[in-house]
Amino acid sequence: MKRVGTTLQTIVLIGVAALLLATPIVSFAQTKQEAKDVTGLSQATLPEDDRAVRRTRDNNVNTYAEYGAEETFSLIWPMEAGVRVAYVKWNTLSDRVILVQSDENGNELSRETIEPIFNDCYAILPNARTLTLSCESGMRISEVTLFSEGALPEGVYDWQPPYEKADLLVVSAHCDDELIFFGGTIPYYAGERKLAVQVVYMANADRARVDEALNGLWHAGVRHSPVFLSFKDVYTETLRLALINWGEEETTGKLAGLIRRFQPDVIVSHDLEGEYGHGAHRATAYCLLQAVPLAADSAAFPDSEAQYGTWQAKKLYLHLYPENQITMNWNSPLEAFGGKTALEVANEAYHMHVSQLEYHKNVYGTGPYSSLLFGLVDSVVGQDSAKDDFFEHIPQSQPLDAAIPTATPSPAATAEAETQAEMPEPTSTPRVPMLNREQTQQLRGITSIAFLVLGAGAAIAIKKQRDRKTNHK
Question: What is the model's pTM?
């Protein structure tokens, strides 16, 4: 057998090494799998609960199973179900819920107290065979879906709790106003600039609209749950009637409390004239105008002051406010959304509000309700000069990780599980992330180099073989 030269051996070895470097990335991409819906393999722990459990599987968030203070929602499943995530859609939000996981013998593996958000993912321990939910004040559950390990399907989002500290507070009268009238505000600041954008909705009359709002916000780059207040969704054409419905003192106090809680640098909200005259829009802007200075006053609203302290927001912008007006640019391409503009993303997000499309066809990009026009109403950092950025004169204080979060057990639950069951800490990544742009480029580069090196090596080998044959003639 002919020997291959030292140079050729080196080249081949380099090519093999390059392919080996690429292998983990290729394997990572190939092993990605989607979680399976295994809800059908579970059943109510008690036969008398079957009817209630069926209500949580009818794919209708407006129906629900209701449980009193002494009652529990409980599911049991076999080992082969491989449950790793419980996705719960709450019909209404209870104060605190106790979530218990138990093994096949009924031994408690973990117990944790959770503060529900409307659509919530809970990581299930590998040895768990039973999930139990209970609440001292009762609870209403719309849907419960169980998933195996893997990437959660499109539309199943692992919402994180509201922020403790927000950069931008967006106060919207209804679910959809934050897009129709505020345009690219959320896609640009949450999605592109990765700022902590906290959304608050004043009024909501329908549980299905909550899902529409969540879908739209997720599409626009928000990952922390919005806050849904419980003011009545009643249409009025005057500020006076709107304030009678909501209560001026109660509304102002609630908004001051939210400003103290989230400590935003900038606040954005509605037109004082209610855009097209909607009383709820008017009341939101009017009460917010009062709430901003009161949130900084230690003598105002003592309950929220005792809980959160005081807070002075740096800027307040209102839509269409005629003084100190700025014009936002929602028409530049955004890297975070593959070159789409903020206005395009806002339109896509708005079209997820399916129930509202008969009232407004698109986000207002021009015209009398243009989402590009805002006015600086209050500022403690001076007037704008460039007039195209809500955060002019305010440095970005907390850049965020753009990675999509995954459902993980709380530290308390994990610690208790280890103590009681003596089991290894659970792997808690229901989602397996896709290759990002950098990894994709790296894979292409390594693969290209490997093939070039191997090709060169093959060419040299063929040439040497021909040279030997020529020399032997």
Answer: 0.79
List the chain domain ranges.
1-23+443-473, 45-151+407-421, 168-379
Q: Where are the alpha helices (DSSP H) in 341-473?
A: 342-350, 411-421, 437-472
pLDDT digits (tens, 9 = 90+) for 120-145: 999 999 999 999 999 999 999 999 99
CA gap 124, 105 in Å, rounded: 16
Distance CA 314, CA 113 (A): 35
**CA 66, CA 49: separation in Å to the nearest integer?**
11
- pLDDT for 51 equals 92
- At the topology level, CATH places domain 45-151+407-421 in Jelly Rolls (2.60.120)
What is the maximal distance between C-alpha atoms in the chain? 107
Quote the mean pLDDT of the chain: 84
Which pairs from 96-100 meet CB under 8 Å and 24+ separation?
96/135, 96/136, 97/133, 97/134, 97/135, 97/139, 98/132, 98/133, 98/134, 98/135, 99/131, 99/132, 99/133, 99/413, 100/130, 100/131, 100/132, 100/133, 100/134
- Helix (DSSP H) and strand (DSSP E) numbers for the chain: 12, 16
Phi, psi of 94 (to 5 degrees): -80, 160
H-assigned helices in 229-273: 239-246, 248-262
The arrangement of secondary structure in 168-379, i.e. its CATH architecture, is: 3-Layer(aba) Sandwich (3.40)
Task: Count the Cβ atoms, other than its own, within 10 Å of residue 461.
Answer: 16
Q: Which amino acid belongs to residue 224?
A: H
- What percent of the chain has pLDDT above 70? 77
